[in-house]
């Protein structure tokens, strides 16, 4: 992945991690941000319909098409998207 794209992905994921999951507007923002990160990784999603925040910069995203992804920052600070 190009450095510029990685920077955008990290920025989006970081912003998503600071959103309060209890507020509906923020929840929608997190879903959109995670969708952008998943799409930037070249993975299929369609739309993120559910997010489970496991910790800081650590999310499980469920997509409308049934795909599930674990989106997190690794020890080096890189965005990682793992299909579940």
Rg from alpha-carbon coordinates: 11 Å
Number of structural units classed as domains: 1
H/E order of the elements? HHEEEE
Topology, number of strands = 4
Please tell me the overall pLDDT: 83
Distance between the termini: 21 Å
The stretches of 5 or more residues where confidence is low (pLDDT under 50) are: none
What percentage of amino acids are in beta strands? 25-35%
Indicate the percent of residues in helices.
25-40%
- Count of helical regions: 2
Structural class: alpha+beta
Order of strands across the main sheet:
1-2-3-4
Instruction: Give the CA-based shape.
Output: globular
Largest sheet: 4 strands, antiparallel
Characteristic key phrases:
4 strands, 38% helix, four-stranded antiparallel beta sheet, 84 residues, alpha+beta, globular
Compact description:
The protein is 38% helix and 30% strand.
Describe the structure.
- This protein has 84 residues and is of the alpha+beta class.
- It has one domain (3-83).
- Helix content is 38%, strand content 30%.
- It is built from two helices and four strands, in the order ααββββ.
- It has helices at residues 3-17, 24-40; strands spanning 48-55, 58-63, 68-73, 79-83.
- The protein has a four-stranded antiparallel beta sheet with strand order 1-2-3-4.
- Strand 3 and strand 4 (79-83) form a beta hairpin.
- Helix 1 runs antiparallel to helix 2 (24-40).
Layout of helices and strands:
Layout: H1 3-17, H2 24-40, E1 48-55, E2 58-63, E3 68-73, E4 79-83
Antiparallel strand pairs: 1-2, 2-3, 3-4
Helix pairs in contact: 1-2
């Amino acid at each position: 992945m190009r450095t510029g794209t990685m920077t955008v992905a990290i920025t989006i994921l970081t912003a998503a991690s600071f959103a309060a999951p209890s507020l509906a507007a923020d929840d929608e923002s997190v879903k959109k941000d995670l969708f952008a990160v998943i799409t930037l990784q070249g993975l299929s999603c369609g739309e993120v319909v559910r997010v489970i925040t496991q910790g800081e910069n650590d999310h499980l995203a469920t997509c409308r098409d049934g795909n599930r992804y674990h989106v997190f920052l690794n020890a080096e600070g890189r965005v990682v998207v793992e299909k579940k």
